[in-house]
């Protein structure tokens, strides 16, 4: 491989690594949801799943299925 091509590839890889480093730093500094908020969201989603009978199931009705129960 040409030495100039190796230099270009290395420079490009360094740019990509620097960009990834900046993104990781920005993600680590971003405000995170508290444990209480995550637990509340999980319990709300579980309640919605358990009360799905009022709305109706998300599965199709198998009216013409030969092995229905």
The helix/strand order is: HHH
Number of strands: 0
If you average the pLDDT, what whole number results? 84
Q: List the domain count as a whole number.
A: 1
User: Biggest β-sheet, characterized?
Assistant: none
Cα distance, first to last residue?
67 Å
- Number of helices, where a helix is a run of at least 4 consecutive DSSP H or I residues: 3
What does this structure look like?
The chain has 69 residues and is an all-alpha fold. It is 68% helix and 0% strand. The chain has one domain. It contains three helices and no strands. It is elongated and about 70 Å long. It starts with a helix and ends in a 14-residue tail after the last helix.
Q: Features of this protein?
A:
single chain; 69 residues; mainly alpha; 3 helices; 0% strand
Task: Spell out the blueprint of helices and strands.
Blueprint: H1 3-29, H2 35-50, H3 52-55
Condensed summary:
The chain has three helices and no strands.
